[in-house]
Amino acid sequence: MSNQLIDPFGREINYLRVSVTDRCDFRCTYCMSENMTFLPKKDILSLEELETICNTFVKLGTKKIRLTGGEPLVRKGILNLIQNLGKKIGNGLDELTLTTNGSQLEKYAEFLKENGVKRVNVSLDHLNPNKFKEITRWGDLNKVLAGIEKAKSIGIKVKINTVALKDFNENNIVEMIEWCSSNECDMTLIEVMPMGDIGSENRFNQYLPLSEIKETLSKSFKLINIPKKTGGPAQYYKIEGKNIDLGFITPLTHNFCETCNRVRLTCTGILYMCLGQDDNVNLKDILRNKGLSYLENSLFEAISKKPKGHDFSISKSGINISSNRHMSVTGG
Ligand code: SAM
Ligand code: SF4
Question: Is the CB of 328 under 6 A from ligand 1?
């Protein structure tokens, strides 16, 4: 048997995204309800369990690990995990990276750099402090901007993730692109996905197809499609006269599944083979009840169940939760 994780459709699975916590210091309206109930500690993988699973993935050919959450930098002890995974870079692993809300980035950027993190994705949905507060409920824009500045100043490349939201930032995307360009940050626009219950907010009201944004942008910019392949869901464009790549992640309007190279580990130890499907394997139970020696085989078994693709949809009627897990548990 090959020592690589190859799924039934011949896709080599070499990218692991890990949600290290469901907790967060923000409450973005499209991600969480204001009164989130978080999981008890016993349900969450310990840092040692997270490391064991990551190491096993690396042994089986994983080249890239992205830590996410919830907010990865608020997990207690996360720096140990980052330090230990950082030692795998050049030793099986090509890249260790993070998706973060940036609130702790100013404090930890040096540490990240010292431990091999060369790039981070920072979520930023608005450049106006009041609008930023409105969407994150608890976030402080100045802190996030200071984090981005610090990371850049020590050579960490920052990519900005912006969720396109109807009646919220649709008229500010041009301004955000200008800002990203002046700050040398690539940018990715994301369509809102129907993940988890978000309380009183209505997803249909939030949903803004990126095809509409693209049309608006083409009035201000010349977008040039570029064949940048990351195995991920984004389609990339160069913008004439600007020095950034602009990605569009369109799970609801464009099928990106055929080149998917990734799986997701939740903070509860469930390995999901697809963001939008429920096929999964409970690695926490395997580790806790059967032991480490079963883990490798379980990963092969899991990958053999990776579905061909997802089938998200958002409609005016209906509950608009294609998956009942929150992005913060699964890891965005
Ligand atoms: N807290 C970190 C952050 O915000 O970057 C990491 C976790 S967050 C779940 C990862 C990404 O998922 C963020 O860019 C966030 O904007 C995005 N996200 C969260 N809920 C989403 C949803 N329902 N649809 C689309 N993107 C979502
Ligand atoms: Fe927290 Fe990220 Fe979700 Fe916002 S998107 S609530 S920052 S996990």
Answer: yes
Sign of CA dihedral 48, 54, 57, 58: negative
Amino acid at 244: I
Phi, psi of 159 (to 5 degrees): -110, 135
Residue 61's Cβ-side half-sphere holds a number of Cα atoms within 13 Å equal to 16
Are 67 and 303 in contact by the 8 Å Cβ rule? The answer is: no
CA-proximal residue: ligand 1, atom 4 (nearest): 101
Domain spanning 15-330: CATH superfamily: Aldolase class I (3.20.20.70)
Q: Where are the domains of the chain?
A: 15-330
The two structure tokens encoding residue 234: 């984004």
**Number of H-type helices and E-type strands within the chain:** 11, 12
Alpha helices in the chain (DSSP H): 47-59, 78-86, 105-114, 129-136, 141-153, 173-182, 203-206, 210-220, 283-285, 295-303, 327-330
Model confidence pLDDT, tens digit, residues 238-291: 999 998 999 998 865 546 677 788 999 999 999 998 877 788 999 999 999 999
Which-ligand-closest: CA of 162?
1
Ligand number nearest CA of 136 is 2
Q: Which residues line ligand 2 (CB under 6 A)?
A: 24, 26-28, 31-32, 69-71, 101, 123, 328
CB of 196 closer than 6 angstroms to any ligand 1 atom: no
pTM of the model: 0.92
Residue spans of alpha helices (H) in 259-324: 283-285, 295-303
